[in-house]
């Protein structure tokens, strides 16, 4: 009788152990993710919590307050069929596949309208951001590095949703026909000038006429028409 009781106890312990392990694994595989679809994230002014954002969401926010983890990588990276400036690293030619078509259309329409644009920098991995940051700290000290280089995980380029654009003169500033065309037209293809002039107090970044970010046509038009930033659009 005693022996049988012991056997039952051992059995319960084993089954309990297996059950506990299974539950633990399931929790591990889904760290804080729910399956909100993209349309719900598209609602205006809906706060986007980084932990709940799927990897391809067009409205993901990355700035000095909202970073990406070391393991964050866009779902599918592709090299778009656009001309690149000389010397662009292979990694930086890649973008998240959802922006390939809009980006190629933007480049083609620009060309049709007499504007030659060149891709200069798209995706930047956490690893390469870390290298850039570390090298800068070594060369100039932490204070200067922090002023000019994003800490690893805090560059929007890690999303694969943006591209730095340049021109044949490698002089892409306000007043050049390429930069002016981009500012007036990129929203037609779902892109915004992510760091507009006079908005550093909101974006945390100086005016960058060359950095375009894909947010989808609806959001891009709203942001362009109202002269606001992505932070303001998301009510951050
Ligand atoms: Zn950029």
TrEMBL record:
Record domain D-alanyl-D-alanine carboxypeptidase-like core: where: 94-216
CDD domains in alphabetical order: LD-carboxypeptidase (cd14852)
GO biological process: proteolysis
Pfam families: VanY
UniProt-listed SUPFAM superfamilies: Hedgehog/DD-peptidase
One Gene Ontology term of the molecular function aspect: peptidase activity
Transmembrane segments: none
Protein name: D-alanyl-D-alanine carboxypeptidase-like core domain-containing protein
Biological source species: bioreactor metagenome
